[in-house]
Amino acid sequence: MNLAVISVAQGFQDEEYVYPYYRLLEAGFEVRVATPSGGDVLGKYGVPARATMSTAEALSLTPDLLLIPGGFESPDRLRIDEPTLEMSRRAMAGATLVAAICHGPWVLISADTVRGRRCTAYTSVHVDLRNAGAEVIDQPVVVDGDLVTADHYRNNGPFMAATLAEFSRRA
Asked: Is residue 119 annotated as a catalytic residue, yes or no?
């Protein structure tokens, strides 16, 4: 069974967690939810993300897929959590497919992993991506090898379709 880790913190965008979570389960993934504390967190509108481990514990895993939902608060919390940054670095340097949506790429920026990569994100994150050396493509979804990014939860469908298609292509 393929392993996916979803990395979230308090204040995630509910739609960017719930839809990918269930879509990954439907696709046959074992889904683990990593939070900095290892405790449950709530989305912007109160949806719970029930943690299965801390991000420090997740460092012992080699997931097939790392997914980082957006909502400005969660990625802002994650990008100052060293275990989350290390998990992101390892994923981007290894065989793990990384998928980030909305403000999720902030985590990858703070992990210093987007230089030279093609990606998208929520409009306000574009300047941060450029400053970190990424090539910003103003499209709903961008696939750059082992990195899939999307700009907004209104594009959850195409984001997850591209993520699962890229995963299948790599398998």
From this structure: no
